[in-house]
Model the fold of this input.
Amino acid sequence: MNSEKKGAAIGKALLSGPYLLWMAGFTLIPLAMIVWYGLTDKGGSLTMSNIIAIASPDHAKALWLSLGLSLISTVLCLLLAYPLAMILRGRGAAAGGFIVFIFILPMWMNFLLRTLAWQTLLEKNGVINGILGWLHLPAQSLINTPAAIVLGMVYNFLPFMVLPIYNVLSKIDDNIINAAMDLGANSFQRFIRIWFPLSIPGIISGITMVFVPSLTTFVISDLLGGSKILLIGNVIEQEFTRGSNWHLGSGLSLVLMVFILISMAMIAKYDKNGEGTAF
Amino acid sequence: MTKGSKALRKIVSDFYMVLILIFLYAPILTMMVLSFNKSKSRTQWGGFTLQWYTQMFDSRSIMSALTTTLVIAFVSALIATIIGTAAAISINSMRAVPKTVVMGITNIPMLNADIVTGISLMLAFIAFGISLGFKTVLISHITFNIPYVILSVMPKLKMTDRYTYEAALDLGAPPIYAFFKVVFPDIMPGVLSGFLLAFTMSLDDFIITHFTKGAGINTLSTLIYSEVRRGIRPSMYALSSIIFLTVLILLIFVNFRSIKKPEHA
Amino acid sequence: MKKKMTMTLAAVSLAALSAALMTGCGKSASGGKEDNKLNVYNWGEYIDEDVISQFEDETGIQVVYDVFETNEEMYPVIEAGAVKYDVVCPSDYMIQRMAQNNLLSEINFDNVPNYKEIGQEYLDISKGFDPENKYSVPYCWGTMGILYNTKRLEELGVPAPTKWSDLWDERLSGEILMQNSVRDAFTVALKMEGYSLNSTNPDELAKARDLLIEQKPLVQAYVIDQVRDKMIGGEAAVGVIYSGEMLYIQEAVADQGLDYDLEYVIPEEGTNYWIDSWVIPANAEHKENAEKWIDFLCRPDIAKKNFEYITYATPNKGAYDLLDDDLKNNKALFPDINSLPNCEIIKYLGDDVDMIYNDMWKEIKSE
Done:
């Protein structure tokens, strides 16, 4: 019996073999290449200049701008998603599941086309202004401003915030809520004491899934910001595709990875059991 | 809670949901409407037409991109699911320290900026003399798909009762048989949603594909990406609308049947 | 439930896979000799797809066709050599850069008899970046100028622009579209001050940069080819655009029955004219097929067909002769190249100067 269990244990360990090899080859090695490019210059000698470049005025400004916009987008996503998740939870499992699908469905239309469609909607002579004009309301002029970029970010990443929170909320037992109500807690107290603390893993997961991609996006600022607003994602993209300065691009990417590491640390701390996953 | 305020709550929450739905679907509807627009303009309506749909089927570049997209999405999702499920099972029984390390590495492709992942893979391929082409795109897609599979399967694994598995072993079942009969059915929803998620992610990606494809390979996303600056052919709207509607119909179909018979969930 | 989901999923996947295989099967059926291929790398929307099919039918060569969006994006791909293209269509200054970096091979003009169809004046201009006309065969050419919306300008009370400096007019705030490309943007600023658009003088460049920063609040957006659609849509009053878009724009305005006109003007201070030409990379594996391709595209009937699709001016005299008179006389499309005031071709200035330009461009963008 023991040896069979042992055999099973070894078998289990072996199961991750292919995965570990794959990760080593296609995640870790490429990562090492970025580190290598980031720490060398065109001549091949070691240098910190690509990393220090983040401090140069243009780059620092782009970084602060990106941080600001992503932060705003993340907070907006959270404020929009939380009530939505609670409402969905209240609809019950089957209907809730269906509605969740309906909310994920937009992700099936290509990301670029979705963003381009927002351009069509927001333009001066676009669809929204057309409708507003028909209703004799003043036209909006969001296109080519930072607000439009935030809108694009919220639009594209909202599902990533809704799903983890919904998942976590749906695991909360109704009985706990009922017990709290029986014990005299009002809505506010129930939220602070029960809903919120129990949903932290989902919130953290959602924040990570929204903040990090929005930090590095460049398509949204190109299409909706009129290319007038230089985000750190634009800088990196330009260095790789137009400036042909892969070293600088890699160096800047390494700096961005700091944020990724912070996110990973937060997940490890607040969501140890992986409850807040999106799926 | 009084009946009145409960009803009010429902109306408000319904209203909120509808608002968000409108927000989410406005661009999609716009695209679908534009796919029937005779005029190429994105803001003027020039009359109804189906010409973009027929043009789409005639275009060799669109059709070949469609094939490539579907094949890559399907194959990469499949392989990622197999590798990922196996890995998830293994990681689940790891001790704390290796577990954290491996889960950390798993998070890297998901959290890393697309462009960095794409470039790093391209650099690695070039450095090792692997020529860019279909296989490199496939490898890249599998790479970023596996973490999604793992993260879909893990929660289900945790929920499975490990003791059931051990009980099966105790009762004399060989490990593999026990696995497929006891553990696998329970984690199935996780495996399926992992597959679906991997498929979706693969479908939408353009940056990673852009950097790792070679000559002549195009997915729909890279095709669109190359047209974004120039002005997208309306046939692309047509194609996207078709894909979208197909998925919508399928999902409604699947869910309708499950709503009708909730007890069998 | 699980069973249903599994079955549905299986059905979907099978359907997807079979659809994919069916559309893919058609392709492989036409596969002739394994190696009779041609890898083409061209700008997006820069060829009539029928031309590709016609070429394949007439020569039996299988064409693999890839597109790029900017010269700067194309260059690293050719340089890295990870993908071996046989024939590429870069712009003037990029050809110069590629030639200087030994990335091109000389064309064997014996294999390109239709070369004679290219107008001599274009070959002369090409000497600016290809001094002995060894490496390139012109494909399309044009100028860069200002496109303006007559009605919108009337509403704003601004006269039609005739100079680059008109794009700094405060009355046009939020109505200006500039090109999202470093050399093109600097062309505007440098020409405005009377400098050469190939300037390497730091003071001149700094002045140009400051001008562009000054202009930025007035600019609606920095775009590349979307200028065309935005102008047609009436989003802006003026935009910097390539002459090649004019025919498309004129047709679109007529089609949509718009009540405003879109006119093109080459500013007085001068502008750049550009030529996109076909070149053969040094690491091409199918050089003769590449030469056949170029020869095919230089055939007057093929050049004319391409022109009708791309609508960019063709340097092919044979094709030009086949056009209708009103097209021949379309001055926006076919200006008299020798009478263009102060026009220059963009030259490659070397990596170091390029970096200066790029850094300044970043400064402008991050303002």
Notes: Chain A touches chain B through 94 residues (CB under 8 Å).
